[in-house]
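Continuing the batch. This is chain 6 of the set; chains 1 through 5 are on the previous pages. Same settings as before, nothing changed between runs. Recording input and output for traceability.
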Amino acid sequence: ITDGDRLLAIREHKDASEVERQIAFCNACILTFRAPVFRELIDKVRPNNAQKEFYVTDLVQLANEAGYQVGYGIAPEADVMGVNDRAQLARAETQFQELRRDDFMKAGVTLRDPSTVYFSYDTEIGRDVTIFPNVVFGKGVKIADGVEVRSFCDIEDVTIGEGATIGPFARIRGGAQLGKDVHLGNFVEVKKSILHDGVKAGHLSYLGDAEIGSKTNVGAGAITCNYDGVNKSKTIIGANAFIGSNASLVAPVTIGDGAYVGSGSVITKDVQADALAVGRARQENKPGYAPKLKARAEAIKRAKSIQSSG
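Output for chain 6:
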């Protein structure tokens, strides 16, 4: 309730008259007092209201009645909006995200579909970065210049070096550090690992608790087996190494510089630099055996069908 530039009173909705309820000027719950005035008036506040509560806002009217003049300022609603439930929290989050998106685009970041990208309060992004639709950044993300993040990536607690390409559908977390020109493709997860410059993992890999040297290539489906059910151990892969598709590296294990790991291998021992490591069963072909296997499977299927119908 105001009179010119003076604030006369602040009235709760339940205590306001019908006329007062038509006032569209709302209290943002930020009050400032001169300390002596506050001390003089605070003990005069009484719970004489519909909710039987002590309203600190009653000090405005008490100050006027004591001969003091009370002023007010006007702030944009978005700056002082209240959050009392999850719907209001979502509204505040929406406004925050809109501000972050505008700030990043003005600073030289390309957002292909801004409304689908979500940032944390501490996200740091360099210039000429391109972010595709449906990307979520959690806390602790720092991205250098020239990075490309493709759709449906979930990224938190990570540093990404200049010129890296991430995704689509990549998950990076746990303090990971990615060097320059690192490439992580679709459905690659990196956790608490260091990937040096030029490392490539194009498809369907898990790299956890690892350090991978520069220009090493990790094949599709390759994983670091970092957890034994009790402890987590580290995998170290040197520079210019090649990890074949569907290889499992059982930590703790070290793969030397320039080494090759054959596809489908389970590696449990260290591999020397420039060595070829193959850890899989020898292939055996049995001519004409496939029809026998098929006939056996069909017989089992018929027996199950007869048993269920009987």
